[in-house]
């Protein structure tokens, strides 16, 4: 026999995503939306007899749930208000587009295709948002109507064949970011940043395509972007970017925050001095230092952004004969996770298979190594999360998979089939960032990111 307890609570808006999903997927408690838009919570007590201590426990759970519901209802009300604000901004945006229509020649060249990509992304975001609210609220209908209207306007503008409405593009990106923030809040505060009490990666979100690189040039296919994985105080919002038409690494750009990244307004441009040029594009920023590969001598290089000093360390075992499948010269791949800084490379001794090396940040030396069974040239790219190496490979033009994992704690390897969508076919940089549990990918010239979901059982 199963006893069922139903809690019916009126919600002000119709929505269901009011409890952190991960806490409730055990099957003991489920939530849905009733006919009137109210939140319905089912608590299943898997039992035969009726022991008093369980009843006591249930009372506690009920009380906690009531509290939780109360908190979440308050949040929902604020979402509703926020969505209305976004809607208004979109309306303003439409007005601005109309204004630009009449004076478009004042603006520089516009990439209409990119504008469409961003509109599609925007639509997908709204769709996701609507699904997770499980609601047919008129707010969403209006958002969709606005997006359709914008698409039409873009089509019309293109027939004028005028150049460049960069301004609109930036507005779009800003709007996108706002929706993304709304989404993030909807997932609620992630209490598990830094927590490795899980059995590994379960899935990746859909790709979030931010925009094309700061050179506004899809020909800049070799590069990377992301955030500092261990930011120093005051640099928590900083982004980095670097890209080129070939695999050589000549310079890096830093942006003080997201808006500056979108506006392509760098706070700093590091032109790498002669002798310190890099290659391979598998660099990261960690502790306000850029770690990247140089070729003469073939070694790890570090540019300390605080002191602007360069340093290098040779790894005798690392081989220059093996690269990842999408790009040449990728011999040293830097990674950072909850456990610190790593470098991944293949060695002759390990027959071209990936070796994981832990970097001691103080001495900039190798402190430990693990030999994996992943043959590097079959791997698209690799990253570390919670002390586990994950390797990817191509499934088809639009699909990639995490197919291999190696746990440095247990020294065990696993074969996986975690599929995820690609925006474009190839990528030169893929890294996990423990500070937001996201993957950052430089995908044929575009900034792309994914949210990582871990298996917490
Ligand atoms: C969404 O709401 C419908 C009824 O309005 C319900 O049948 C369905 O189970 C809900 N889905 C989720 C994921 O809560
Ligand atoms: C779409 O744009 C037209 C003008 O271009 C405007 O009259 C109409 O109200 C807009 N529709 C929505 C849903 O905003
Ligand atoms: C890890 O999670 C499991 C189940 O989710 C829990 O039983 C255990 O106490 C947790 N361990 C730590 C150290 O938090
Ligand atoms: C970078 O340089 C600063 C100032 O000299 C120093 O305090 C810091 O420890 C250095 N960071 C790294 C990662 O080497």
UniProtKB/TrEMBL annotation:
Chief localisation class: secreted
Looking at the UniProt record for this protein, which Gene Ontology cellular component terms does it annotate, in alphabetical order? extracellular space
Q: Which PANTHER family match?
A: OLFACTOMEDIN-4, OLFACTOMEDIN-RELATED
The residues covered by the Olfactomedin-like domain are 195-456
Q: Identify the coding gene.
A: olfm4.2
InterPro entries of this UniProt entry? Olfac-like_dom, Olfactomedin-like_domain
Keyword terms: Secreted, Signal
| Name by which UniProt lists this protein | Olfactomedin-4
Signal sequence extent: 1-17
The record's SMART domains line, in alphabetical order, gives: OLF (SM00284)
Q: Name one GO biological process term.
A: signal transduction
- Source superkingdom: Eukaryota
Subcellular localization: Secreted
């Amino acid at each position: 026999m199963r006893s069922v307890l139903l809690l019916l609570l009126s919600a002000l808006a119709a929505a269901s995503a009011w409890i952190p999903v991960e806490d409730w997927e055990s099957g003991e408690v489920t939530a849905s939306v009733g006919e009137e838009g109210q939140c319905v919570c089912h608590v299943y007590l898997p039992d035969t007899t009726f022991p008093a201590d369980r009843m006591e426990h249930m009372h506690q759970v009920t009380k906690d749930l009531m509290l939780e519901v109360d908190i979440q209802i308050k949040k929902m009300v604020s979402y509703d208000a926020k969505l209305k604000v976004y809607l208004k901004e979109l309306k303003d945006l439409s007005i601005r587009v109309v204004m630009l229509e009449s004076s478009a020649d004042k603006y520089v060249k516009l990439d209409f295709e990119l504008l469409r990509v961003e509109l599609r992304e925007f639509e997908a975001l709204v769709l996701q948002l609507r699904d997770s609210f499980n609601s047919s609220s008129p707010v969403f209908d209006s958002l969709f109507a606005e997006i359709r209207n914008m698409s039409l306007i873009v089509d019309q503008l293109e027939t004028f064949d005028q150049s460049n409405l960069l301004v609109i593009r930036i507005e779009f990106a800003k709007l996108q970011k706002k929706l993304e923030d709304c989404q993030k809040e909807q997932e609620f505060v992630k209490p598990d940043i830094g927590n490795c009490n899980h059995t590994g990666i379960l899935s990746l979100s859909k790709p979030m395509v931010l925009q094309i690189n700061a050179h506004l040039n899809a020909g800049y296919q070799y590069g990377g972007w992301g955030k500092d994985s261990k930011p120093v105080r005051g640099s928590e919002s900083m982004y980095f970017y670097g890209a080129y038409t070939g695999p050589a690494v000549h310079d890096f750009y830093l942006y003080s925050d997201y808006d500056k990244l979108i506006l392509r307004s760098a706070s700093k441009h590091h032109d790498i001095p002669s002798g310190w040029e890099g290659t391979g594009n598998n660099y990261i920023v960690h502790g306000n230092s850029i770690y990247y590969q140089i070729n003469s001598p073939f070694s790890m290089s570090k540019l300390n952004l605080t002191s602007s000093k360069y340093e290098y360390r040779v790894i005798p075992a690392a081989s220059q004969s093996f690269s990842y499948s999408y790009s040449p010269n990728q011999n040293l791949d830097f990674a950072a996770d909850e456990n610190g800084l790593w470098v991944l490379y293949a060695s002759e001794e390990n027959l071209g298979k990936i070796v994981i090396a832990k970097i001691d940040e103080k001495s900039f030396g190798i402190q430990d190594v693990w030999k994996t069974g992943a043959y590097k040239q079959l791997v698209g790219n690799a990253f570390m999360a919670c002390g586990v190496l994950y390797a990817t490979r191509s499934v088809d033009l639009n699909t990639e998979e995490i197919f291999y994992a190696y746990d440095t704690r247990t020294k065990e390897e696993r074969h996986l089939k975690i599929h995820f969508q690609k925006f474009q076919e190839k990528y030169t940089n893929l890294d996990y960032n423990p500070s937001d549990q996201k993957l950052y990918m430089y995908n044929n010239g575009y900034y792309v990111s994914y949210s990582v979901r871990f298996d917490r059982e």
